[in-house]
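Input:
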Amino acid sequence: MVIRSSSSTRIDQSPREMFQRSNSSSSSPPKVGGSLLKPWKKSSESLSDSKKHSTKGSSSTHHMSPLRNESHNGSKTHLHHNHITHHPTKDKYFKDLDEDWSAVIDDYNMPIPMISNGGVETTLRPPAVIHDESAFESQRSSMESYRGTGSNLNRTISNDLKLKYQIEVEKDVQELNSLMVRIDRFKNLTRPKDGTTQVNLTEIRKLAWNGIPMVHRPVVWKLLIGYLPSNLKRQDQVLKRKRLEFKQGVDHIFSDNHEKDVTTWHQIEIDIPRTNPHIPLYQFQSVHDSLKRILYFWAIRHPTSGYVQGINDLVTPFFQVFLSEYLSPSTKDDVYTLDPLTYLTAEQLSDVEADCFWCLSKLLEQITDYFIHGQPGILKQVKNLSQLVKRIDSDLFSHFDSEHVEFLQFSVRWMNCLLMREFHMSMVIRMWDTYLSETSLETSIGSEDLMSEGSTSLDRKSRSSASGPPSSDSRQTTLSEFHVFVCAAFLVKWSDELMKMDFQGIITFLQNPPTKSWKESDIEMLLSEAYVWQSLYKDATSHWR
Amino acid sequence: MSRKKNILKVIILGDSGVGKTSLMHRYVNDKYSQQYKATIGADFLTKEVVVNDDKVATMQVWDTAGQERFQSLGVAFYRGADCCVLVYDVTNAKSFDNVKSWRDEFLVHANVASPETFPFVILANKVDVEESKKVVSSRSAQELAKSLGNVPLFFTSAKDSINVQDAFEEIARSALQQSQSDADAYEDDLNEAINIQLDGEPSSCGC
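Output:
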């Protein structure tokens, strides 16, 4: 987690700050009625390109919401967004606006979401971060003078620049504060000082959904996915036992007593050198050996599925996040380039492998049907994606149809590798903060916790309700389900471009979408958009489960 | 000629790791890299080709995933293919043994009009490796090609760019021929349909 000063990063902060403001007055968990769309709205405004709205023919006036949700006949909803950098000036302005939403509309006629028409839950998912009130106040006062009245807009450029600079400095300070506060909150949550023995998984999920500071990521991931028990007293013991179990298992399958599954072994052997070939870490022999042990052991332990290509990708975020635990905070980025054996003992590396193995198992447990014979889970997900896009962006759907583009032709990989192939590793890791926060409750509470001493069914029940995902409503969402919304958000992001392309152009584009320059803020925007879609369509998609 | 633009759809099949992706990139971009990730689903590249010195066409190459598990999903890419390229690795006997299965698998799912005449091309890849590592003899390869109906066979190396261009020129020729015979068959169908209608008319009038 780095404090950046690029404008795009800061724009992205605004949704969070929005929540911060809403919650700064209260110490209770965030429950801000109707504010779900606000963060989206704000960012969407920064991102919307009103011209494109009208050329697309889906929104003829600027008063039209970008988030239209007409009734079933001709149901059509559009969420348009363009890359942040398209409108630096507007962004500058919008990102610092206060909560006076009507002023935004009056001033700019920008499309706003119609909160009432989407059936949006009012439960707030992204967590609040304690807000530095004074920084906010000073920022707001400078913004107010910046906005000013019509005549103020005629100020000299130098004044504007000065103000902009001032705002940027304030923003940086604010960001730094916000980050420190976040780090502290994670610290308090994972190692509560008040003598409680149970970490508050609900709070951790809420907070983690919006990103986890690098220093806390290894522990938080293990908690989120249900590998590390939430009972602090049992953590060490469980880790010790699980790591030993892995070590013994591996020793066995690589001993003479085990008859090697030649096909599986061959497949893993040829895939390991092709895993993240652009990251130096994955070129080391020690890493090849580690990954082989993890994957082969996983395959042997899960014969129904066995090793399937793509699982080699899915283990790597765990691998490098858990390696980073052994690096000092200032050198954590070196994980990309260092041979683990230069900073780990063989025993520590084995512990990392064990952690990866168990977390991979927990992850794949949630998407088992992706990898079993016939891959029905992937077929289902692809179908769900196409149905969802049909509703979200029917123009794009029809265009694909007329160009004979099938969803299977481009989205199999999206499902099989959870979009990992489409982004840089650092982006994937940020994405997984959110994904792992979406881990299903059964997985995340895990047998470890359920079997803990004195746990009765009542305990279980009450814990279930207490540990529900941040969106906890009538039904649980799942990682798999959320992923379809992320894929949909990812696809419609390029809608304007894709509409102009023919079959060949579309497939070529989607084979290699322009995400190389994506920053964390872009990923966070994608995740927020997916969340909004999910909120809007959750009733329509209940049959997915 | 009934098509406004000649599009040749080519599909590459074969076991995992035999070099399908590398062959495609060598042909389309004339590049080789050790850094390709395992293909999931299918990769797609296109190239403008001139066949028989006069016919311009666009070749759309689908490079598929090799692991057996993906076959059920791979089927989606088979339909409409004009030529199917079967690849094996000369250092991997199993990949050679599976060539026939890949062909059969394709014929079962691609739903081609006449399986007997559908064009396949076999590529024996990685011929750049030292002789001691080669486990599939050229003779058994030729026998297989013959047994599958005199399928054209090329000994290629994507790495050293051996025979790749030649092979794909043959692939383009076969694909173009196939696509034209398909188009002709389509027109025949149309004519037949019209004829049937005309033939039917007198009798319906007679009622």
